[in-house]
Amino acid sequence: MASGEALRRDIESFVPATGRLGLWWLGQMGFVLRIGGAVLFLDPYLSPKASRRVPPLLAPGDLAGATLVLGSHDHSDHIDRPAWPAVAAAAPNVRFAVPDLLLPALAGDLGIPLQRFLGLDDGRAVNVGSVKVSALPASHELLDRDPATGRYPYLGYVIQAGGCTVYHAGDTCLYEGIQARLRSWQPDVMILPINGRDAKRLSSGCIGNMTYQEAADLAGSVGPRLVVPGHFDMFAHNGEDPALFADYMRVKYPAIGVVVPVHGQRFEFARP
User: Fold this and answer.
1) I need a labelling partner for 86 at 20 to 30 A (CA). Which of 80, 97, 131, 214 fits?
2) Residue spans per domain, the chain
3) Mean pLDDT of 48-66
4) Within the chain, what is the greatest distance between any pair of CA atoms?
């Protein structure tokens, strides 16, 4: 695992050419993405916590060069409420992309000006510089939707820049239509949770995701060039063995590349 300083330097120094990108895993569903001329932080979980099996790899101040911070939903390991005000102070130009349903409450609770947020929902897209981010619903155990407004509290994001397309699923299970929706974007890279779900976890308030088999089949139905598992490492009661996912992919969908990420280590993707 790279030290915080070494990781920060590596992120700053890597500048991908067109058709290339760099990814660094921060743990859970947290990734740093360098794509085009932008630096995106996807669900970065930065706050120390006794229950973490992996300590924070970066501090909020290390995000000073960020273009965009994406939060897929309002759980502490995805939208890190204690860390975001410090990120906003360290990176005065960064914008925060969140589900539109959550936007007013987050801005008020965190003391971050409303204009620094970008609200997303199903079918809505935003452009920040050369980066386009589109949203689609995520089914975090259930495909929840606000009855008053129809907006979704859980989202996945499709990121397009520099000749590449990346899907970051946030936390999701399968739901009707997700395969066709994703195929329409033809993602090069898919980042998927694999920790699964069961009655014991749900009864304790731990909301579930795809199993590793379901994640593999989602990737197989969409056909990206590369798939990356996440959300299997952080908490003792909510993990999975990523080797099971990688083995299943290699046997069932051998044409799709698999990278099991290593905390703090860069891996790169290049379009053929």
Assistant:
1) 131
2) 4-264
3) 96
4) 49
